[in-house]
Design goal:
Blueprint lengths: L8 H23 L2 H8 L3 H8 L2 H26 L3 H6 L1 H5 L2 H12 L4 H22 L3 H19 L11 H8 L3
Helix pairs in contact: 1-2, 1-4, 1-7, 2-3, 4-7, 4-8, 7-9
Length: 179
């Protein structure tokens, strides 16, 4: 029998955060219960609350996490080639992690909550600034890049773009414009 490995508090917190990203991606802020996140993480619901305080604070941590991942992917692409078109060509790396984009969309949707709205606006602004800084893009170029990215994000949420897309002629036509 293999002995059970004890995780550190940080490791356990990271597991809970990963479970939260998965759950919030599926059900959004309002539709996700902390006991579902606890079940996914293999911990008790009171433990989730002890780690993060409230569901809102856990959702904010999930939004922060996905935005950090988006920025990380853009930085990695820019290290190879600091051009806006290259960042766009690497968008498939984001599509391969659809939960990132779904949590971001749920963050936009929940922005009526003042704390969530403040966080989402600040992080989206950081992504915009990072894109401009990494590539030297003008405001208009950055806007067009983000507009195309939002369209791809919405198409990913509809499951017509990304891994195993549901084939739709209109989506195929639009997707060709991203190449």
């Amino acid at each position: 029998m293999t002995p059970k490995v004890r995780l550190t508090a940080k490791e356990r917190g990271d597991e809970v955060l990963r479970a939260a990203v998965q759950a919030f991606a599926v059900s959004g802020y309002e539709g996700t219960k902390t006991d579902e996140i606890a079940r996914l993480a293999g911990v008790s619901q009171p433990y989730v609350i002890r780690l993060f305080g409230t569901k809102q604070q856990l959702f904010l941590a999930a939004v922060q996490h996905v935005c950090t991942r988006i920025e990380q992917l853009f930085r990695e692409a820019a290290e190879e080639k600091p051009e806006l078109s290259y960042l766009g060509q690497n968008y498939h790396r984001l599509l391969a992690e659809p939960e990132i984009l779904l949590v971001l969309l749920h963050g936009f949707s929940a922005s009526g909550d003042p704390a969530i709205g403040d966080c989402v606006r600040e992080r989206f602004g950081s992504i915009y600034t990072l894109i401009r800084t990494l590539t030297g893009a003008t405001p208009q170029q950055a806007r067009e890049f983000l507009s195309a990215g939002m369209l791809m994000t919405v198409m990913s949420a509809m499951q017509v773009l990304g891994p195993n897309p549901i084939p739709m002629p209109w989506a195929t036509e639009i997707a060709k414009t991203f190449d």
